[in-house]
Design brief:
By secondary structure, this protein is α/β, with parallel strands linked by helices. The protein has helices at residues 2-32, 37-123, 140-147, 160-170, 248-263, 298-309, 327-330, and strands at 129-133, 174-182, 186-193, 198-202, 205-209, 215-219, 227-230, 269-273, 280-284, 288-293, 319-323, 334-338. It contains seven helices and twelve strands. A nine-stranded mixed beta sheet has the order 6-5-4-7-8-9-10-11-12, covered by helices on one side. α5 packs across α6.
């Protein structure tokens, strides 16, 4: 019994020692056992959150810094604009001052120059001689009286156009060719006798007009050197005025006819008949009738007529008719002689 008890006790003691060792090992394991994943995850999440919060704060700081920089840039840009505006205003004010000073100085210079010229014209450039060149039916005294300028007047301020108009208005049968100022003291007026270009038939004779359609005078007799105008009438026959026809179409036709007559140097036209203005005629050398037809394309017609008049077919005493009414359509002018 005693051995059994001893063995039992020994086994119990062994069992208890084993149990103690196992519990000790468990405790050691518990001590050495790593921390759970949950704890690690919590710490990592806290660390990540910290990093995120740090990033957010960095971003906020960066944004704030950018905002500060942008605001500073805006403020500097505004200040620069204000400075540039002020500079521009200063420059504009300077330029305006310069311009105003230039205007004032130029005005002063002009005033001084005009005053000097006025004094010089009054004291120096005075007309001491008026020379008349050319012949006319008027006397020298009549010419000098019509000029409107006398000796002692200023040569600078005398108007040559006004002198021309004075002479031609007061003396119709004269044409002023040229007026020249010969400094320091001479005025030269060149004139000639006015030439009658057209004789306009009227009730009590003929009205004479020159190449510029200026009325020269009126007489019962015809002027041999002028072209007789038939089928026209004037509104007024006052000498030295320009002719105004009662029919405006007559004025247009005659102005154009006269221009091409001078252009192609067609001479010896003795008569123009505008009784039928849609088919007018002219007479060359009192022996050849020229039919112009409708008063259009006068340039071309006059050129063709000039060629015919220079030919031998119309030389001498030959009489006939030149038909230019269809010159444009047929590209030619017909001459039909008449005998007897």
């Amino acid at each position: 019994m005693s051995l059994k008890k001893k063995t039992k006790q020994g086994t119990k003691s062994k069992m208890t020692s084993v149990m103690k060792k196992s519990t000790d090992k468990k405790r050691e394991k518990k001590k050495k056992k790593p921390k759970s994943n949950k704890i690690i995850n919590k710490k990592e999440t806290q660390r990540i959150k910290g990093i995120k919060t740090d990033k957010k704060t960095v971003r906020k700081k960066y944004k704030n810094a950018n905002r500060r920089k942008s605001s500073e840039n805006e403020n500097s840009a505004k200040k620069f604009k204000i400075k540039s505006k002020n500079r521009l205003k200063a420059r504009i004010s300077k330029t305006q001052r310069k311009i105003s000073l230039i205007i004032i100085y130029s005005a002063i210079i002009l005033i001084l120059f005009s005053a000097i010229v006025g004094l010089a014209s009054m004291l120096l450039f005075k007309i001491s001689s008026i020379n008349l060149v050319g012949q006319s039916q008027y006397s020298e005294n009549e010419l000098r009286g019509a000029i409107g300028v006398k000796e002692g007047d200023s040569l600078i301020f005398c108007d040559t156009n006004e002198i021309k108009n004075n002479i031609e208005n007061k003396l119709p049968y004269i044409e002023v060719l040229q007026i020249t100022k010969e400094y320091p003291e001479s005025l030269v007026v060149e004139v000639e006798q006015a030439k009658v270009k057209y004789n306009i038939e009227c009730d009590d004779g003929y009205i004479y007009i020159n190449d510029e359609f200026r009325i020269l005078g009126k007489d019962a007799n015809i002027k041999d050197e002028g072209i007789v105008l038939k089928g026209v009438a004037l509104k007024s026959d006052v000498p030295s005025t320009y002719a105004e026809f009662t029919d405006e179409s007559s004025n247009v036709i005659l102005q154009e006819f006269n221009y091409y007559l001078n252009k192609y140097e067609v001479e010896n036209i003795t008569q123009i008949n505008l009784t039928d203005k849609l088919s007018f005629e002219a007479v060359y050398d009192n022996r050849i009738t020229i039919k112009f037809g409708y008063p259009a394309d006068l340039d071309y017609k006059m050129k063709m007529i000039q060629g015919v008049l220079k030919s031998e077919s119309v030389s001498g005493d030959i009489k006939g008719v030149i038909d230019a009414s269809l010159a444009v359509e047929k590209n030619r002018v017909y001459f039909r002689p008449t005998y007897g």
